[in-house]
Amino acid sequence: MSFWNLSFFNAIHNLSGHSVFADVLGIFFAEYLPYLLVIGFLVLVFRESGARRRFYLFAEGTLAIILSRGILTEGIRFFYKVARPFVLLGFSPLIGESGPSFPSGHMTWFFALSLAVWYANRKWGIWYFVLSAIMGVARIYVGVHWPLDIVIGALIGVISGWFIHWLFRDIRTALQSVPAKEHESVVVTS
Q: For the chain, give me the number of helices (H) and strands (E)?
């Protein structure tokens, strides 16, 4: 455990337990905000013009999440197990959580999703990044993650989102060259 990781954890987590309002906000951002972000993503998908563009955005976001959370995070956790702060330091967190701490699965998931949203809509994307960062700080506040879990999780999410976006470049180019009303009849070839 590095000194800075423990120091930043203590600086954030030690703010908890002093205000019921702050604790409720911390719990909301750590545990319930993710549901709102998923709903927001689905709204953005359905706002896309044309079924193929909707499918593309949904597929890009979903595959980025699968790569970051389902493959990379679980691969790292298989070989490198880090105990959660409440386990090592012996306290009760504000929310229930189990399994290894590193990297944060929430951060890998929501930063990958944030990048997919940002590629589709810059304004929404900025909000997604800000809210995902707030969620990361809240997960430290409630005592279930170390700061390094959050930072590395966010990095894995962004890299995964970028990789999937890069991988889909030919499909995206084909979709962008077709007017929105014609999307329903376009056949994308390799």
A: 10, 0
Of 158, 97, 103, 96, the C-alpha closest to 125 is 158
Distances (CA, A) of 138 to 22, 29, 142: 10, 6, 6
The angle, 0 to 180 degrees and rounded to 10, between the axes of the packed helices 122-141 and 33-47 is 170
Specify the amino acid at residue 65: I
C-beta separation of 109 from 69 below 8 A: yes
pLDDT at residue 190 greater than cutoff 80 = no
**Which of 132, 123, 138, 119 lies closest to 57 in space, CA to CA?**
119
Contact by Cβ (8 Å): 30, 114: no
Domains, the chain, ranges and CATH?
Answer: 7-181 (1.10.606.20)
Q: How far apart are alpha carbons 18 and 8 in whole angstroms?
A: 18
Conformational region of residue 104, where left means phi above 0, alpha means psi within -120 to 50, and beta covers everything else: beta
User: Whole-structure pTM over 0.85, yes or no?
Assistant: yes
Over residues 31-49, the pLDDT tens digits come to: 999 999 999 999 999 998 8
Report which residue type is found at 79.
F
